[in-house]
Amino acid sequence: xxxxxxxxxxxxxxxxxxxxxxxxxxxxxxxxxxxxxxxxxxxxxxxxxxxxxxxxxxxxxxxxxxxxxxxxxxxxxxxxxxxxxxxxxxxxxxxxxxxxxxxxxxxxxxxxxxxxxxxxxxxxxxxxxxxxxxxxxxxxxxxxxxxxxxxxxxxxxxxxxxxxxxxxxxxxxxxxxxxxxxxxxxxxxxxxxxxxxxxxxxxxxxxxxxxxxxxxxxxxxxxxxxxxxxxxxxxxxxxxxxxxxxxxxxxxxxxxxxxxxxxxxxxxxxxxxxxxxxxxxxxxxxxxxxxxxxxxxxxxxxxxxxxxxxxxxxxxxxxxxxxxxxxxxxxxxxxxxxxxxxxxxxxxxxxxxxxxxxxxxxxxxxxxxxxxxxxxxxxxxxxxxxxxxxxxxxxxxxxxxxxxxxxxxxxxxxxxxxxxxxxxxxxxxxxxxxxxxxxxxxxxxxxxxxxxxxxxxxxxxxxxx
Length: 465
Ligand code: NAD
Ligand code: UGA
Hints:
This protein is of the alpha/beta class and 465 residues long.
């Protein structure tokens, strides 16, 4: 089957970059990315490419090459579904905030809406590709909806989870470790899988394109994220042990990571992992395990989240205890708000929870982040509902100059590992802060010796003082 028209429902962090690269590499295929969020689509269509809704290194160039040629962003969802032979579903699948499975299960209402819309509009056979991260066996639910409410057309459902990481999305898409495609084992299923393989083969070697059954593919995505997050929680657990024993977590990471069976990646101790997916996907895995009565399996994975929450709390507690057990009325400067460097995404960022804990102690926080807007920061805090929006605005200020942010601070906390923080004139910052000059490095990015020579009282995750 030759695919000439692709539609992608959802123009977010996954749909936007993924389809941009897919279109760039397949100029013969018309790719239309649709979304119900008009503002987002307008931003994707903005002639000024610095206004794209998502900041990712290298993304502008890809969009510039493909947009208007064979890549289109639109709010005309029905039209795009109708025209396409292959439809990617790339909508959000957040943790449920209500009803059964609240706080654990994935909320599949957006997925179901997409399936119903496809069923309503489709007049010809379609391949429907799950690009969103979904609980194992969701393909069955999508198929049921399509089969029972469709217009007599046939649908093949494929699972094609996305493994890109934010901040390196374009590189990850151009050069993925693997592409995973799950499909039915029937002839039709194999044909659909081959159609998708052919699209990826435009730029990815065939041996890196893995085909499996649908359930393995759906589950592998949750498992990949669970394993990655587990490594971060494992090293974060060890970071506390390092702090009390005189070991240095950086040295421990290096020592264990050189064992090729362990490997060096995802062993960087931090203030805690954030991002829209690790927590959501592990909670989802835990919920699935529980729903099958696998309580030990569920408890095992839940511990990864418990450890992460503890690490965020521990960082805030450390600031309070070091500042003589009170931060009330003290200015604490946050360098960084994004959940990692090179992204403007703040979803589940550790900074939000550390700020909330410090605001509970009546600290006055000033935030500087090179890519995150003031409105985003306030939305993140307001969403917690811990205090009124007015109170959040009174206690927390956002500035766009790091030196101004640090002026007269009682303490500086590094929450995101932005490269520019390393290059600051720390001598100049030292002169401007209140003494003792406390720095809490939640990302282990600064040179301890340099900071101490300047005069800072420098505390880093996983290093005893
Ligand atoms: P997002 O919130 O950035 O984007 C989702 C978009 O879908 C939104 O713009 C929303 O308006 C749109 N949408 C929702 N329902 C719609 C509908 N019925 N019709 C049209 N548009 C609709 O989410 P995201 O970060 O792109 O994540 C999408 C999925 O990909 C999730 O399942 C996530 O777990 C997974 N994922 C995310 C990442 C990541 O780095 N963010 C990586 C891999 C996988
Ligand atoms: C992660 C996965 O890496 C992707 O493969 C996956 O596609 C994606 O989730 C998803 O499903 O959404 P992402 O969350 O964008 O990608 O970023 P990561 O690089 O994985 O970082 C996640 C969090 O862990 C960040 O807060 C980061 O600072 C933290 N982290 C990461 C550490 O604290 N230490 C490490 O060693 C690595």
